[in-house]
From TrEMBL:
Extent of the signal sequence: none
Keyword Transmembrane: yes
Keyword Transmembrane helix among record annotations: yes
Organism (species): Ficedula albicollis
Transmembrane spans: 179-199, 211-230
UniProt keyword list: Membrane, Transmembrane, Transmembrane helix
Name under which the protein is recorded: DDB1 and CUL4 associated factor 17
Taxonomic lineage: Eukaryota, Metazoa, Chordata, Craniata, Vertebrata
Annotated GO biological process: acrosome assembly; cell morphogenesis; protein ubiquitination
GO cellular component entries: Cul4-RING E3 ubiquitin ligase complex; cytosol; nucleoplasm
Record-linked InterPro entries: DCAF17
Length: 508
């Protein structure tokens, strides 16, 4: 769920411009202007700088380091191999909030919140791996693993249980399971327990398949493609039975224990006794649903398989389809194209296909202030100048060969976009494009101007890129991480860092 960067009154364009510049730290007396200028300088430097690479490879808990620069990477710490019962399933990075007094000196340093198989929530020091806090979530009633997410980033965290399923013997005996999920809600830094609630069939219906929480909205998904939105903050306030704190001795349903300690865990102190007021509902293929833009719009795919790859952009106010609001790449590919609201909060939309990235914007229809249309802001096109898909070729001997098939739009032998990301501090749009011929795959990371899409810098990745493996690329200021997952959970991490080009410095 996205948020617009700044709300503007109709026709007050000067106010809009002022708010936008202030949000970026450009206001002359704004406290963020120095940081913004420094980040602007870093952006200019990194778009000219040389990038060097080193790699970390991991196989069965053994790590090896290799480097293409003189200085070897330094291992800060390494967690020892743990038992399966202590295995970490999910994690979130916590960073210190600005302008707040925190109870412990360790709170001012980055830490990791991790979730283990055995229902433990741990806060670890990001510098040393030391366990700073431990919270036991629940006993055998439910399993909390694999699902950590933010409601409000760096403020409110959600821990979701796995879906409750009765044993086969209980189902055969006619016992019905009404509670599908549990949600535990925490305030972070300092870590504090807000409450735990259950998602019950009796309240939300029998066909619930999944739930999520984002930006104060409870999102409930159903098997028929239906998505319903509820006010999560209002639910917490309305149905809270009794607030409790971590470490507090508490009597819950006749059982006395300490909140967050083994074996008591957390009480389910938020009981939803009636269906909350419905904010909005929509039907979409595979429950795909997004909100963003200004004024608020949402993106869905009509709930029929034949419409896969077709996206409708509609007004949240009255469900009206925007002019040019049906977006379709019309590409023939194995991997589907994807679309989402731009994370820069500009209200724009990014639509990514195999060889084309379209950045779209919402604007008022001329002479119709109440109607919005989708217009193209800019496009980024893959480099396929040398790829000619002829159905008829002539060999050196003069023999005519006809192809019995045509290449897909995401054929590995053609340059194809695999990853698109946005670096908010430097205001750069980054793309990863890959070409694979035979066993050798080559990729390059490009930095584009987020405002106009102009190519500013291209960094060829030195390692081979096999399109059959899973890949992730993260870009943050002067670092680029490429994580490759091979079969049997073997990982390789390639790190690129901006370094000073000493040759150029000597020349100057």
């Amino acid at each position: 769920l996205g948020r617009p960067r700044a709300l503007r009154a109709c026709g007050v364009h000067n106010v809009c411009r002022l708010l936008t510049r202030r949000a970026h730290g450009f206001y002359a007396r704004d406290a963020g202007v120095a940081l913004r200028k420094n980040l602007g300088l870093l952006r200019k430097i990194m778009c000219q700088a040389v990038w060097k690479e080193w790699s970390i490879k991991q196989t069965n808990d053994q790590q090896s380091f290799s480097s293409s620069i003189a200085q070897q990477p330094r291992l800060i710490y390494q967690k020892s191999k743990c038992a399966k019962s202590e295995k970490i399933e999910d994690a979130l990075l916590l960073e210190c909030p600005l302008g707040e007094m925190l109870p412990s000196p360790s709170d001012y340093k980055a830490s990791l919140i991790v979730l283990t198989v055995q229902n433990w929530l741990l806060r670890l020091s990001a510098d040393s791996g030391e366990v700073l806090e431990k919270v036991y979530l629940a006993g055998s009633c439910c399993k909390f693993f694999r699902y950590l997410s933010w409601d409000t980033p760096q403020e409110v965290m959600i821990v979701k249980s796995a879906q409750n399923k009765l044993p086969a013997a209980a189902r055969q005996a006619g016992i019905q399971q009404t509670v599908l999920f549990y949600l535990a809600v925490f305030q972070v830094l300092p870590l504090s327990f807000i409450g735990m609630l259950e998602i019950n069939k009796k309240i939300f219906g029998n066909s619930v398949t999944d739930v999520a929480v984002s930006n104060g909205i409870l999102i409930v998904m159903y098997s028929m493609g239906l998505v319903r939105l509820y006010n999560f903050k209002a639910i917490l306030e309305q149905f809270m039975e009794q607030p409790v704190d971590l470490g507090q001795e508490f009597n819950w349903n006749g059982q006395v224990g300490v909140v967050g300690k083994f074996p008591f865990g957390l009480p389910c102190n938020i009981k939803i006794t009636d269906t909350p007021p419905l904010l909005f509902e929509a039907s979409s293929l595979e429950n795909a649903f997004q909100i963003g833009g200004y004024p608020w719009h949402y993106i869905i795919t009509p709930n029929k398989k034949k419409h896969k790859g077709i996206f409708h952009i509609c007004s949240l106010k009255d469900n009206a389809l925007a002019k040019n609001g049906i977006q379709e790449m019309k590409c023939c590919s194995l991997e589907p194209d994807w679309i989402y609201f731009h994370p820069d909060m500009s209200g724009r939309i990014i639509h990514v296909g195999p060889n084309l990235i379209k950045v779209l914007k919402l604007k008022e229809v001329k002479n119709h202030a109440d109607q919005m249309e989708i217009a193209e802001d800019f496009t980024i096109v893959a480099n396929r100048e040398n790829c000619v898909n002829n159905s008829v070729t002539v060999t050196a001997s003069g023999r005519v060969v006809k192809k019995r098939f045509t290449l897909l739009d995401d054929d590995p032998e053609q340059e194809t976009f695999k990853i698109v990301d946005y670096e908010d501090e430097l205001d750069l749009l980054s793309t990863v494009a890959v070409t694979q011929i035979g066993a050798d795959g080559r990729a390059h990371l490009d930095f584009h101007c987020n405002e106009h899409g102009i190519l500013l810098k291209s960094i060829p990745l030195k390692e081979s890129w096999d399109v059959t493996y899973s890949h992730e690329v993260y870009f943050d200021k002067d670092l680029v991480l490429h994580i490759e997952q091979k079969p049997n959970r073997r990982f390789s991490c390639y790190v690129y860092q901006m370094v000073c080009d000493t040759a150029k410095d000597d020349d100057s």
